[in-house]
Design goal:
Elements lengths: L2 H15 L14 E6 L2 E5 L7 E6 L2 E5 L6 H11 L4 E5 L5 H4 L11 E5 H20 L18 E3 L2 E6 L2 E9 L6 E6 L4 E3 L14 E2 L2 E2 L3 H14 L5 E3 L11 H23 L4 H7 L12 H18 L4
Parallel strand pairs: 4-5, 5-6, 6-7, 11-14
Antiparallel strand pairs: 1-2, 2-3, 3-4, 8-9, 9-10, 10-11, 12-13
Helix pairs in contact: 5-6, 6-8, 7-8
Length: 318
C-alpha cells in the first residue's frame, strides 16, 4: 500500500472518532455564533468538532483557532459583527482542526502567532497532511481545494503578552498534554480564557495528534490543569476547544475536566490489575455516571487505549 493510501486510511479512522452523523462528515455543519462576554464571540460547532473564538476591539479583531473547513463561517460572522479587520490569529495547538483556517482571513493580512514548537509541527507533519488532503478527491476534504497553509510568522517560547485595542491578551504555552504545545489565552478585562483542547465540555477528549502522529499525555494533562486551577485567575468563562461554552461556570469546568482524567485513569487501572487486555477494556468499560452524557464514545475508546499503554509504561501515577 502506498504511503498516501495508508495516510488516507488513517484519516478515515480519525473521522470515525468525530461525534457526527455519517452524513455530517461530508456536509459542512453550521456553526453557532455565541456571545461570551462584551466583544467576545465563539463559533460553536453543533456536533462537538472544533470551536473558534474572536475578540473585537477598536483596533481590529483577534481570532483564536481556525479550521479550514469552518473558518469561512468565522470570517462571515466577523464581517456581520464589525467592520474592523482581522489583525491577529492565535493558534492553540498544531492540529488541522485548530490551526489551518488562516487562509480565510488572508484578505485582512493578519499576523499569525504560534509557539515555536507549533511552528515546527506545522511546517513538518501538519503541512504534509494539509497537502495530501488538498490533493484528495474525498468529499470530506473539499474545503482544502485551492487553498494554502498559512503558517505563524510570530513565534514565542513560554508566554507572550499582546496589548491590542485596549485589551491585554496573555498567551501562555502551558506545556505538552493534549499536543506537543498547548497554548491558552486569557483576556483579564473580559474575564474569559480560551483553553484550546486542554478543555472539552460534554464530550470525551480526543487523543491529540498532528497529521496522525499522536502526542497526548494524560499524566501531563492533569498536571497542567492543576497549574491552571492553582493560578486562581479571575475567569468567569473558560472556552473549550470542543463542546458547548458554559457561560459563567468558571473554574468548575476545569475541575470537571481534571476529575474526568483521574476517574478514567483509576477505572482503567483497576481493569488492568484484573488482567484485562486493552481490547477487553474498550469493550467492557462502563462510563462513570458523571460523564455518561458525554458525546463521542469512539473518542473515549481511543483515549482508553492511550490510558492503557501509558499506565503500563509508567505504572500507576497519582
Amino acid at each position: 500500500m502506498s504511503p498516501f493510501k495508508s495516510r488516507i486510511g488513517l484519516v478515515a479512522w480519525l473521522l470515525a472518532l468525530t461525534p457526527m452523523p455519517a452524513a455530517a462528515q461530508f456536509v459542512p455543519q453550521t456553526m453557532e455564533l455565541r456571545k461570551i462576554a462584551p466583544d467576545v464571540y465563539t463559533m460553536q460547532h453543533p456536533f462537538g468538532s472544533s470551536n473558534a473564538t474572536f475578540v473585537v476591539t477598536p483596533d481590529g479583531v483577534l481570532v483564536f483557532d481556525a479550521d479550514i473547513r469552518t473558518a469561512d463561517q468565522t470570517m462571515a460572522a466577523i464581517r456581520k459583527t464589525t467592520d474592523k479587520k482581522v489583525r491577529y490569529v492565535v493558534i492553540s495547538h498544531p492540529s488541522g482542526d485548530h490551526a489551518t483556517g488562516g487562509w480565510h482571513f488572508r484578505e485582512d493580512k493578519p499576523i499569525v502567532i504560534g509557539s515555536r514548537k507549533q511552528m515546527r509541527d506545522l511546517h513538518q507533519q501538519e503541512r504534509a497532511e494539509f497537502l495530501e488532503r488538498r490533493g484528495s478527491t474525498a468529499a470530506q476534504f473539499a474545503a482544502y481545494k485551492n487553498t494554502e497553509m498559512v503558517h505563524p510568522e510570530v513565534g514565542f517560547d513560554g508566554a507572550l503578552t499582546l496589548q491590542f485595542g485596549g485589551l491585554t491578551f496573555q498567551i501562555v504555552e502551558e506545556g505538552s498534554a493534549h499536543s506537543t504545545s498547548d497554548v491558552t489565552m486569557f483576556v483579564p478585562q473580559r474575564r474569559v480564557m480560551m483553553m484550546g483542547d486542554l478543555l472539552n465540555t460534554e464530550i470525551h477528549p480526543g487523543p491529540g495528534e498532528s497529521a496522525q502522529v499522536f502526542f497526548s499525555n494524560a499524566r501531563n494533562w492533569i498536571t497542567l490543569l492543576d497549574r491552571i486551577i492553582a493560578k486562581q485567575l479571575p475567569v468567569d468563562t473558560y472556552i473549550p476547544g470542543h463542546g458547548p461554552v458554559h457561560l459563567g461556570r468558571g473554574i468548575a469546568d476545569i475541575e470537571e475536566q481534571r476529575r474526568y482524567f483521574i476517574v478514567m485513569r483509576d477505572a482503567v487501572s483497576k481493569m488492568i490489575m484484573a488482567g484485562k487486555s486493552v481490547e477487553e477494556i474498550q469493550k467492557e468499560f462502563q462510563t462513570p455516571k458523571e460523564f455518561a452524557h458525554y458525546r463521542g464514545p469512539q473518542r473515549q475508546r481511543a483515549f482508553i487505549n492511550l490510558f492503557y499503554h501509558q499506565l503500563l509504561e509508567r505504572g500507576f501515577w497519582p
